[in-house]
Design a protein that fits this description.
TIM Barrel, LBP_C, LBP_M, Lact_bio_phlase-like_N, globular, 1,4-alpha-oligoglucan phosphorylase activity, Rossmann fold
Length: about 725
């Protein structure tokens, strides 16, 4: 097998042991991590050297002289019920005061808002007063039994990621790292000056691993030091009066505190984005990518590579955004939680290479006596491997304290096997891409900007209300289909690209993923309906096209063949309940799991083929509409059975049932990938048990037995290597 493609973490006073692991894993690069440093001996090794670089933290001496330049965020106080006309709200009560302090430097009367949350009105500024010593706002004429909140600007005085690592690893008296805002004048100048000096002082560094740039995703802690609100896409920590003035100058109107607080939802990725939010995001992305380019130019002038970690302060650097190419990055590295997050990294355009940081992280919350971290490592690899076979990252690695992981020999051996298999994938693929039988588009409000990022709450994590949709992405990440992400605006402005075979609209009603009120724009329904009737395929999952409008809830009900009972038409009988005896979609599917299923979905008429009906409701259905086909699925959490269900649904909707058999394993625990340009195939066993399967490709059928987690490569013209 080949050598390299692997990055390991290093730390001080651990040279011999580090080099032993490097040889064991055939690593060719080494990196430091948050809380570790590479000593001179490691830096002089034959390994390529990555050095984490924090442009906006770990410089406390500077920022203590300019605390007014810390990043800021709009926060909302707890809702407080008025039982008297005079109401006092302690707005910091639910926040961690080692992380956050109110901004009294910029006029609160101008930038803050007090809102009657019962009727939604803004309390006039003359009717509330501020006590800065007690962090309280007092309302003088509150309406009895109304709830009130205070929306206020706060400085972030402890970097949220360093804070998390500090608390997780019990770093004790280690000084808290204070972040600063790149938009502010002193900070902007300091960032550029410090970058130049650091590059001169560190000639031995090969790769500057920016971790990350300027604005932290929204991560706010409560009074107990626990996470209160986390949104991996949140722009909340990019706000400042200076940025707000830029917005007003560019667009001709001012944003309010409420534009950021958003009734307490803080513009989470599940909310339908407002026009103002999209403009604000564009403004931040424009600034951030422009300043990133200043830093990457300096890095390149010094003869080094510029790598971005896709996490931490990544807001504004969206790698699928319209300004991304401007940054001129050499590489992007990100955390691999599953197949979806791997594709999020591996599909990034306009970089020389991508790298994945695999799990587990070498921290004591996993590496402790009695635990077997090799189990997580193997599970993480197997789930990511499906996606690597479709769209490979160029490199892989791990992070944390190597001295901690080195105490677990079984883990070290497991990673050695994983890294060897990873290199083997590249050796066999030889830079080619896997065969795709059709093209699928995911339709939501975010479109391309958040490619492979739909339904995500925090990076690689999801909630009960989201996992029934996230499973769509995880299934697609390892499937023999091409995937792209399109927005409702794309469809309304440009129509539907003729290369698309199937469109998926999925999500809970009212979310950015289902669509919300945009479906009351009849033009959207017209375009989708015409496209399906002319031969397109449509799959709706959960509550697709859902908004109460003109007697329908699913606005595409006429082509989906189903709608959801909302309690308004209970007096209207629903007669169509008979399931189809057999169908292409369900062939070989032994059980159904619709997750947090949608209740009370019913078939409109006999033209709807009901494929699963229980609890007096439809969970799976298909329908022919003109020259096209549609499929409805009540929910799709990830499992290999559900991945197979989705695959069969896609190929059915696209009228490409025969093409599905070109790279098809009959056993759902095994998957096949074809590489026509090098005449090779790869069959993987995704389970921890021996599996037997028949695999179809190119008109051939072969019988295989695979050991637990095994992958087998073969020549499409000859047989198994």
């Amino acid at each position: 097998m080949s050598y390299g493609r692997v990055t390991i973490p290093g730390e001080e006073n651990y040279y011999n042991e580090t080099m032993a692991v490097a040889r064991r894993w055939k690593a060719d690069a080494i990196r430091d991590c948050d809380g570790t440093k590479l000593d001179d001996e490691l830096k002089q090794s034959e390994l390529k050297i990555y050095n984490a670089y924090f442009p906006t933290r770990a410089q406390n001496q500077f920022i203590r002289e300019h605390m007014e330049e810390c990043p800021q965020i709009y926060l909302m106080s707890k809702r407080t019920l008025a039982t008297r006309s005079k109401l006092t709200i302690a707005f910091m009560d639910e926040y961690y005061q080692k992380q956050l302090v109110p901004n009294y430097h910029d006029d609160p009367a101008k930038y803050w808002e007090v809102i009657d949350r019962t009727d939604g009105t803004v309390v006039p500024k003359e009717n509330w007063s501020l006590d800065q010593e007690e962090n309280c706002v007092t309302i003088s004429d509150a309406a009895l039994f109304h709830e009130y909140t205070v929306s206020f600007l706060a400085y972030i005085i402890w970097d949220p990621v360093e804070m998390y690592n500090h608390l997780t690893n019990d770093w004790g008296d280690k000084e808290h790292e204070i972040p600063f805002d790149a938009l502010q004048p002193h900070s902007h100048e300091f960032i550029l000056k410090t970058m130049k000096e650091w590059l001169q002082d560190n000639p031995e560094i090969d790769v500057v691993r920016f971790t990350t740039f300027f604005y932290q995703f929204t991560l706010v802690f409560n009074q107990y030091g626990k996470e209160k609100f986390v949104d991996w896409f949140g722009y909340g920590a990019s706000v400042s009066p200076r940025m707000l003035k830029r917005f007003e100058k560019k667009y001709g109107y001012a944003m309010r505190a409420e534009d950021f607080v958003d009734e307490g939802y803080y513009n989470s990725a599940f909310r339908v984005p407002s026009a103002s939010l999209k403009k604000y995001m564009d403004l931040v992305q424009d600034f951030v990518t422009g300043m990133v380019r200043e830093l990457t130019d300096l890095v390149h002038e010094s003869g080094k590579e510029a790598m971005m970690f896709l996490g931490d302060q990544w807001i504004g650097t969206e790698p699928y955004g319209k300004y991304a190419q401007r940054m001129n990055l050499d590489a992007v590295v990100g955390s691999v939680g599953d197949g979806t997050t791997l594709r999020m990294i591996s599909d990034i355009p306009n970089v020389k290479y991508t790298e994945g940081r695999f799990l587990p992280y070498f921290f004591p919350d996993t590496f402790y006596e009695g635990n077997d971290p090799s189990i997580e490592a193997r599970a993480n690899w197997v789930q990511a491997r499906r996606a690597i076979l479709r769209s490979p990252i160029e490199r892989m690695g791990y992070g944390g304290y190597l001295s901690l992981a080195d105490k677990f020999p079984k883990f070290v051996d497991t990673v050695a096997e994983i890294t060897e298999e990873f290199r083997g994938i590249h050796d066999n693929m030889q830079g080619t891409r896997a065969y795709c039988g059709l093209k699928v588009a995911i339709l939501n409000h975010w479109g391309k900007l958040r490619t492979w990022q739909a339904f995500t709450v925090a990076h690689a994590l999801y909630c009960k209300e989201a996992y029934s949709y996230y499973g769509i992405l995880e299934s697609l990440s390892g499937m023999n289909v091409e995937v792209e992400f399109i927005s409702f605006d794309d469809v309304l402005e440009n129509g539907i690209d003729e290369s698309i075979d199937v469109i998926i609209n999925a999500g809970a009603a009212g979310t950015a993923f289902s669509g919300g009120d945009i479906w009351s724009q009849t033009r959207l329904s017209e375009i989708l309906t015409a496209w399906v009737m002319n031969g397109g395929g449509l799959i709706g999952v959960g509550e697709p096209s859902a908004v109460d409008f003109q007697g329908r809830f699913f606005q595409l009900a006429s082509i989906l063949g189903v709608d959801e009972e909302r309690g308004f038409s209970l007096s209207t009988d629903k007669y169509f309940k008979t399931m189809s005896d057999r169908h292409f979609i369900t062939d070989g599917i032994e059980y159904f799991d619709f997750g947090e299923t949608v209740n009370s979905v019913y078939a409109l008429d006999e033209a709807t083929e009901i494929l699963e009906y229980s609890n007096d409701e439809v969970h799976l259905a298909a329908r022919a509409v003109g020259a096209g086909r549609t499929v409805y699925i009540a929910g799709l959490p990830f499992s290999f059975s559900n991945a197979r269900l989705l695959m069969r649904s896609l190929y059915f909707a696209a009228h490409k049932e025969e093409e599905m058999l070109n790279g098809y394993s009959e056993n759902i625990n095994c998957e096949a990938s074809l590489y026509p340009d090098v005449s090779k195939y790869c069959i993987v066993n995704n389970s921890d048990e021996q599996q037997e399967t028949k695999v179809h490709f190119g008109g051939q059928v072969i019988n295989l037995t695979l050991q637990p987690y095994e992958s087998i490569w073969g020549d499409m013209n000859v047989g198994i290597n």
